[in-house]
Specification:
This protein has one domain: Alpha Horseshoe (Leucine-rich Repeat Variant). The longest helix has 18 residues. The protein is mainly alpha-helical. Helix 1 packs across helix 3 and helix 3 runs parallel beside helix 5. It is globular. 51% of the residues lie in helices and 6% in strands.
C-alpha cells in the first residue's frame, strides 16, 4: 500500500496507525523492516520508517529513531525532512532535552531542524538535567546520555 499511488496523507496514516501498531505487536520484526525501508530510495517507505513511532511517546526507540534520521542527512526531499521535523516535534512533548541535544549535534536539513524545534521554546527544558554525547561505542554508534543530578537532600 505504501509504495502504490502513495501520498503523504495515506502514508502517514499507514505509518503511524498500521505499521506503528504492527511493530508494537511484533517488535522483533521492526529493525529488519526499517533497515530495508531506509536502504531503498522510495520516499514513502522512508517516511514510514520515520513516522511509525509517532505515537509511541515514552516507548520511542531513540536509538532507532536517531539511526533512521541520520540515514537521511543530506536529503533535500521535502516529505522526508518534514517527517523528520514532525517526529522530533512530537517526541519533544515527552523528552524535550533529548530532542534539543539531538538537533544540536546532528546536521539536519533546515526544514527538519526548524520543524523539530518549533514550539520547543514554549516548553521549558527540565532544570538540572545533564545531556552528554558519547562518541562511537563498542557497537560503532553514537549515543546521548541523560542524567539527573542527585538531590543533596537524599
Amino acid at each position: 500500500m505504501v509504495t502504490q499511488k502513495s501520498w503523504w496523507d495515506t502514508v502517514d496514516f499507514i505509518a503511524s496507525k498500521i505499521a506503528g501498531h504492527y511493530f508494537i505487536k511484533f517488535p522483533d520484526e521492526r529493525l529488519a523492516a526499517v533497515e530495508k525501508w531506509i536502504a531503498g530510495e522510495n520516499i514513502w517507505l522512508i517516511r514510514t520508517a520515520l513516522l511509525f513511532q509517532l505515537h509511541y511517546k515514552e516507548d520511542t526507540d531513540t536509538h532507532l529513531l536517531s539511526k533512521v534520521i541520520k540515514s537521511q542527512i543530506g536529503s533535500d526531499e521535502f516529505f522526508i525532512n518534514k517527517a523528520i521535523g514532525w517526529i522530533l516535534r512530537n517526541y519533544r512533548r515527552v523528552n524535550p532535552n533529548w530532542v534539543k541535544a539531538f538537533t544540536d549535534q546532528t546536521n539536519l536539513h533546515p526544514l527538519g531542524r526548524s520543524e523539530g524545534l518549533r514550539l520547543l521554546k514554549r516548553r521549558k527544558m527540565e532544570p538540572g538535567v545533564v545531556i552528554s554525547h558519547t562518541s562511537a561505542g563498542s557497537n560503532g554508534t553514537n549515543s546521548l546520555i541523560i542524567k539527573k543530578p542527585s538531590s543533596p537532600w537524599g
